Amino acid sequence: MKSRPSIVLGIIAILVSALVFLVPFAFIILTAFKNKQQATLLDFSWPDGFHLWSNIVEVVTTRNWMLLTAFINSTILTVASVTLLVVFAAMVGFVLARRKTRWNGLIEFLILAGLMIPPAVVPTIWLLQGVGLFGKLHGLVLIEVAYGLPFSIILYRAFIATIPRELDEAAIIDGARPFDVFFRIILPLLWPVTVTNIVVQSVGVFNDFTNPLYYLPGNANATVQLTLYNFQSQFNTSYNLLFTNILLITIPPLLVFLFFNRHIVAGMTAGAVKG
Predict the structure, then answer these.
(1) For residues 239 and 192, is the Cβ–Cβ distance under 8 A?
(2) Contact 146, 128 (CB under 8 A)
(3) Taking the C-alpha atoms of 209, 213, 218 and 224 in order, what is their torsion angle to the nearest 10 degrees?
(4) Rounded distance between C-alpha atoms, residue 35 and residue 53, angstroms
(5) 210-268 pLDDT, tens digit each
(6) How much is the pTM?
(7) CA distance linking residue 7 with residue 30, whole number of Å
(8) Residue 12 Cα distances to 21, 23, 210, 228, angstroms
(9) What is the three-class DSSP state of 44?
(10) pLDDT tens across 28-85, in order?
(11) 3-state SS of 108-168?
(12) Contacts of 213 (CB under 8 A, 6+ apart)
């Protein structure tokens, strides 16, 4: 049985977590219900009236329905990036886990370096301009894939290490080619870690602010996070519209986490212990 101090510490941790995560979200909701004058105060006061619907209409219709365009762009960016991430990371993780060569150490070092070393923005812009991909959505897809690969490869490699090699050998004996072994035998077994990777990466790409800001200029290419600029400026900020926009773009990632929370935990811990 758990001791009383551990139970008390657990309750305190839950309360602190609730305070850290729920209080800001409550502030966003309250401010989204206010008009411009009351929202300017930036306090926790109860709204004088419920202006949420009028705020939503103004946010959605601002700049020629820019928010809808941004949702479409972010959805395309997220789906394309995560699809490529899952396929490429799973294949690299499979090779690293199954083939032991003298290059494995160097490859794993480069993967860890990709996690630790911050990206170089200016050289990346030069590279994109050189290949004609700067300011294009598919160019940003490649950037998101490159930045997300190290984490995804580590997840898949750890999980694949728990899958017995006998499955590969049995499939090869039955006449399966290497691609058949991966796509028909291994990939279906990677469902827990794949769900985790999809959720984590999709939320990260959908909420990405800096990469679209650097590599995807122009209102036609705006993503959901960049629409926050619509309602703030140096001298005047419409906080009611700003927080309504934040509320709208927070709902999709929040729903993803609520529905797939168990899968995220299971996928992250599945490769922790090798059987």
Answers:
(1) no
(2) no
(3) 0
(4) 11
(5) 999 999 888 888 899 999 888 877 667 889 999 999 999 998 888 887 777 666 665 55
(6) 0.84
(7) 33
(8) 14, 16, 35, 35
(9) coil
(10) 999 999 998 998 888 888 888 889 999 999 999 988 899 999 999 999 999 999 999 9
(11) HHHHHHHHHCCCCHHHHHHHHHHCCCCCCHHHHHHHHHHHHHHHHHHHHHHHHCCCCHHHH
(12) 226
Q: Which one, of 256, 273, 252, 138, lies nearest residue 197 by Cα?
A: 256
Phi, psi of 2 (to 5 degrees): -75, 140
Has domain 64-270 been given CATH number 1.10.3720.10? yes
Q: Which token pair is 26?
A: 């409550």
CA distances, 194 to each of 2, 11, 88, 103 (Å): 34, 32, 12, 26
Helix or strand or coil: residue 193? helix
* Cβ 227 vs Cβ 247: under 8 Å: no
**Do 200 and 264 contact (CB within 8 A), yes or no?**
yes
SS3 237: coil
Cα 200–251–81 angle (5° rounding)?
35
For position 264, what pLDDT does the model report? 64
CA distances from 19 to 12, 13, 39, 64, 261 (A): 10, 10, 22, 38, 20
- pLDDT exceeding 70 applies to what percent of the chain? 93
The number of CA neighbours under 13 Å toward the Cβ of 187 is: 14
Q: How does pLDDT run across 145-169, given as a tens digit for each residue? A: 999 999 999 999 988 888 888 888 8
- Separation between Cα atoms, residue 221 and residue 241, nearest integer Å: 21
Asked whether the beta carbons of 105 and 48 are under 8 A apart, the reply is no
Q: What is the pLDDT of residue 126?
A: 94
Give the CA distances from residue 215 to residues 135, 146, 206, 268, in Å, rounded to whole numbers and listed in that order.
Answer: 6, 14, 15, 31
